Amino acid sequence: MFDWFDALGNWVAFQLLGLGSESQLGLAVQFFIMDTAKIFFLLVAVIYLMGLLRAYVSTERVRQLVAGRPKWQARSLAITLGSVTPFCSCSSVPLFIGFVEARIPVGITFAFLIASPMINEVAVVLLISILGWEVALLYVLAGLVVAYVGSIIIEWFKPERWVESYVWDIKMRQQQEEMAHAGGFNQRHDFAWNEVKVIVKRIWHWVFIGIALGAVFHGYVPEEWVTAYLSDATDWWSVPAAVLMGVPLYSNAIGVIPFIEAMINKGVPIGTSLALMMSIAALSLPELLILRKVIKWQALAVFVGVLTVAFISVGYLFNYLFS
To answer: Is 13 part of any domain?
Structure first.
């Protein structure tokens, strides 16, 4: 199936535009066309299907269900909800506020906040197409463990005391999905298609930026440079450096995957590449700036510290497993 997109990239770059198949520009354009077509196809298809699912199962009802469960069940449900919502880190903050307003323990709300940008169905499908189902499955398992264990560690610090006082009084707006539940398939279809339009409109430019960075990396970064500086999994500093590099950047897992694909194609170890991906997706500077309006510096420091250690550990583990 994905060969169609590769063929489209070849046709546009090498036949329609007449670029050389060995030139840096030709390789960059071919990569850009191929990944743009593939990612947006998957983006629309998967978000639509998940929109239909959400039209049958209300997020608000799930939130109420989580609030009345034992902590281990509530944590698992929050992570599951985060895993099936294709949000970037910043877009997850409003639901984070909604969880807090519903008096769900703040440690559990962090489980959602970690899982939502790290794991989503589009990113998993893309990872399968790029790295195979084994790596994609291990990445999902790593994300689930990070969200579950990380939220427990954050909960030990009693982060409720660090939530800004005004947040407790915020009422999250009712979502249009409630109207879809009361209607038939046409209403659910309209809701799902609206989800596609809203989410794609919110993230399309970040997807393009991620693809463009991946294309530039793919076409212009010399393989010798990558081999010399980034591809040695035995360099202890490479994984921490990748995590630190990801913090100033901003994208979601979908938008950053093309860049990660190009890095891996150039010889960067899988663990180092995925550590960068996780940092960009779940530990971005824009997200931290938004979160600071919701939680105090102490909670923010704990959140950053736990995820930094977790992402570095996962990076080392993947480098060890796939070396």
So the answer is: no
